Amino acid sequence: MFRRFGFVFVMVLSSSGFANGNIVDYVAQVRVDKSGAGMVIFKTNLSNSPTCALGPGGGMPYALAFDANTAGGKAIQAMATAALLAGKKIEGNGTGFCTIYGGAWAEDWSYGLIRSSP
User: Which CA distances in Å does 93 have to 34, 83, 100?
Assistant: First the structure.
């Protein structure tokens, strides 16, 4: 009995390190850098941000990163810009990793959608 409880307890503790951020909020800004790295910056912080998004100097727990050099990144940029201009909320979800900005600062975008009502 104790072994089962111990195993479950360890699994719960270890899975908490692999948090995926999520948010339903308005877009404050859409940022794209010269390199093609970009961020959708929300008005409030994501829930469950991974530690990498809370990193050096405070990180950006209110942003999800994307790569505008890819078709997916271009679609994210277009969707976020449309939501910003229309005053609609986005439901965004992260991957739990921060690879686009060098392993820190902002969590990578996994998937999202524009909410139909503000």
Answer: 24, 15, 15
The CATH number of domain 19-114, selected from 2.40.50, 1.10.287, 1.25.40, 2.40.30:
2.40.50
What tokens were used for 114?
Answer: 């524009």
Beta bridge partners of 93: 22, 111
The C-alpha angle with vertex 47 and arms to 44 and 53, in degrees rounded to 5, equals 85
Q: How far apart are the first and last CA of the chain?
A: 50
Q: What is the pLDDT of residues 25-83, one digit of tens each?
A: 999 999 999 999 999 999 999 999 898 888 666 689 999 999 999 999 999 999 999 99
Q: How many Å apart are CA 108 and CA 27, to the nearest integer?
A: 16
pTM for the predicted model, two decimal places: 0.82
Q: What are the DSSP E strand ranges found in the chain?
A: 22-32, 37-42, 63-67, 89-94, 107-114
